[in-house]
Specification:
Length: 467
C-alpha cells in the first residue's frame, strides 16, 4: 500500500496537493473543503483571539481548552473502574505501573489525533476513507463500531449500577433509564459546543474531587503507593495479572477517542497559516495532556483506593462495584464514603456518554458519509449496548454486570490497532502532513507504543482462543 498523501479536503494546499499551511497569512482561495466536515453544526464555531502579547497568548490557550476534557472522560469511564478495582483488590498497587504507562501512551496517541485534525483539516475517519480502499475502510469502520458499542456498554452498566447503589433502582430499570441521558446531552449541544464542554468539565471536576476525598480518608502509605509505579515482571508472567493489565490498557487508551479528538479540535477557528497551525497544535496538545493528567490521577486513585481498602490478608478480593460501594464506608470509617463513590460513578457514566455519542456520529459520517441526526445516532448506539446489558443483568445480576464491564475493556483493547496504525501512518510520514509531520524521535516513540499494543492484543487473542 503506498504511503498516504492527502489531495482533497485539506484546509490549505501547496502545488503538490499536500496539506501545507501557507506562511504568508493570506487567505488561500482553495481553502474551502470539499464535502461537509464532521459535526458541521459546531465546526470552527469557537473564535480564537489574535494578538502577540502574553495576555493574548493566555486567551488563546483558554480558547483551546475543552476538547481534551471531552476525550479525558473516556479514560475514566465505568469500565476503568471495573478493571482498576479488580486489579487493586487482587494485586494491590502492582498495576499502577500499567495505569501510568497506559496514560503516557494515551497522551502520545491523542497528541497524534490533535495533529491530524488541525494539520490536515480531517478527522481520522475522513482520512481513512480518502486514503484506503473501500474494503479496508469497511473493516476499519466495523471494528470502530465494535469499540463504540463496547464503550457504550460500559457506560450503560456503570450508570445502571450507580443508580442501583444510590437510589435502589433495579439494574434492568437503570439500564433502560440510560437512554434518557443521551437526549439530555444532545439538548446541551443546541446551546453551543462551549456549553457542552463546560458541563463535561464540571462532571470531570466532580469525579476528581470525589476521589481526592477518598484518598484523604484512606491515608494510603505513600512509599508503598510509589513502589507500585515500578514495573514488575510478574505483570507479564502471571496470566491473571496480564489479563487485567490488557483490560486496563483497553480502558485507558480508547480507540474511538482518536476519531473523536481529531474532529472536535476543529471546533476552533484559528489562523490557518503555518505558524498559526503550529500554535493551534501546541495549545490543543497542552489541553489534551493536562486533561489526561487528571484522568491519570482518577485512574490511579481508583486502584489505590481498591488496593488500600480491599487488598488485605485473609479477605477475598472485591471485584464487584456494588461490593466496593457497600464496603467503603465501614472500612474507611466515613459514613458518606460510599455515597461519594456512587456519585462519582454516576458522574463518570453520564460524562462518558458524550464520548460515545459524538464518536459514533463522527465515525459514521467519516467512513460511510451517512448523516443521521445526532439523536437517532445516539439512540441506535445506546440501544445496541442495552441488549447485552439487559441480558447480563437479568441472568447474572451484579456479578454478571461487573464481569461484562471488565470484558468490554478487553474488547476495546483488541480494537486499538485498527485505530492506532492508520493514525500513525498519517502523522509520521512527511508526504501526508508535510512540515507538520512528527519528527523522527517522536515517530519512533509512537510506533514503539503501537507495537506494544499490538503485542498485547496478539497475546490476548491467543489466550481467548485456547480457553
Amino acid at each position: 500500500m503506498p504511503p498516504p498523501a492527502f489531495t482533497t479536503c485539506s484546509p490549505l494546499h501547496n502545488e503538490g496537493g499536500m496539506p501545507q499551511p501557507e506562511a504568508s497569512g493570506k487567505a488561500d482561495p482553495d481553502s474551502v473543503k470539499s464535502g461537509i466536515p464532521s459535526l458541521p453544526q459546531v465546526h470552527r464555531s469557537i473564535a480564537v483571539p489574535g494578538g502577540t502579547s502574553r495576555s493574548a497568548n493566555a486567551r488563546r490557550m483558554l480558547a483551546f481548552a475543552g476538547p481534551g476534557y471531552l476525550v479525558a472522560v473516556g479514560y475514566m469511564d465505568p469500565g476503568n473502574w471495573a478493571t482498576s478495582i479488580a486489579g487493586g483488590s487482587q494485586f494491590g498497587y502492582s498495576l499502577l505501573a500499567v495505569i501510568f504507562a497506559s496514560n503516557l501512551m494515551a497522551m502520545l496517541f491523542q497528541a497524534a489525533a490533535v495533529r491530524l485534525g488541525l494539520a490536515s483539516g480531517r478527522d481520522l475517519a475522513q482520512a481513512c476513507r480518502e486514503q484506503f480502499p473501500p474494503r479496508i475502510n469497511l473493516v476499519l469502520w466495523f471494528f470502530c463500531e465494535i469499540a463504540i458499542v463496547a464503550c457504550n456498554l460500559a457506560e450503560v452498566l456503570g450508570m445502571a449500577i450507580g443508580l442501583n447503589l444510590l437510589f435502589g433502582l433495579p439494574l434492568i430499570v437503570g439500564v433502560c433509564i440510560t437512554v434518557v441521558d443521551v437526549m439530555l446531552i444532545l439538548a446541551l449541544q443546541s446551546r453551543g459546543f462551549r456549553a457542552l464542554e463546560s458541563v463535561v468539565i464540571g462532571l470531570v471536576a466532580l469525579i476528581g474531587i470525589c476521589f481526592g476525598a477518598q484518598l484523604l480518608w484512606l491515608h494510603p502509605p505513600l512509599a508503598t503507593v510509589l513502589s507500585g509505579f515500578i514495573p514488575r515482571s510478574e505483570i507479564v508472567t502471571n496470566p491473571e495479572m496480564l489479563y487485567l493489565a490488557v483490560g486496563i490498557v483497553g480502558a485507558t487508551v480508547m480507540p474511538h477517542n482518536l476519531y473523536l479528538h481529531s474532529a472536535i479540535v476543529q471546533t476552533r477557528e484559528h489562523s490557518r497559516t503555518l505558524e498559526g497551525t503550529r500554535q493551534a497544535i501546541r495549545f490543543a496538545t497542552i489541553d489534551s495532556t493536562v486533561a489526561l493528567g487528571l484522568a491519570l490521577f482518577v485512574n490511579a486513585a481508583i486502584l489505590v483506593v481498591a488496593a488500600g481498602a480491599f487488598n488485605r490478608p485473609g479477605t477475598p478480593p472485591v471485584t464487584e462495584l456494588s461490593d466496593a460501594y457497600h464496603l467503603l464506608s465501614p472500612i474507611l470509617g466515613v459514613g458518606i464514603a460510599s455515597a461519594v463513590f456512587g456519585t462519582a460513578l454516576l458522574a463518570s457514566g453520564l460524562s462518558a456518554s458524550v464520548t460515545g455519542t459524538l464518536a459514533g456520529q463522527i465515525v459514521m459520517e467519516g467512513f460511510l458519509q451517512i448523516r443521521l441526526s445526532p439523536a437517532m445516532r445516539a439512540l441506535l448506539t445506546r440501544l445496541i449496548a442495552i441488549v447485552p446489558a439487559v441480558i447480563a443483568t437479568a441472568w447474572y445480576g451484579n456479578e454478571g454486570a461487573s464481569a461484562l464491564l471488565v470484558f468490554s475493556q478487553v474488547v476495546l483493547s483488541m480494537q486499538l490497532p485498527f485505530a492506532i496504525v492508520p493514525l500513525l501512518m498519517f502523522t509520521t510520514r512527511r508526504n501526508a502532513l508535510g512540515a507538520l509531520t512528527f519528527g523522527r524521535p517522536m515517530s519512533i516513540l509512537l510506533w514503539s507504543g503501537a507495537a506494544l499494543v499490538v503485542s498485547l492484543n496478539l497475546w490476548m487473542l491467543q489466550r481467548l482462543l485456547t480457553l
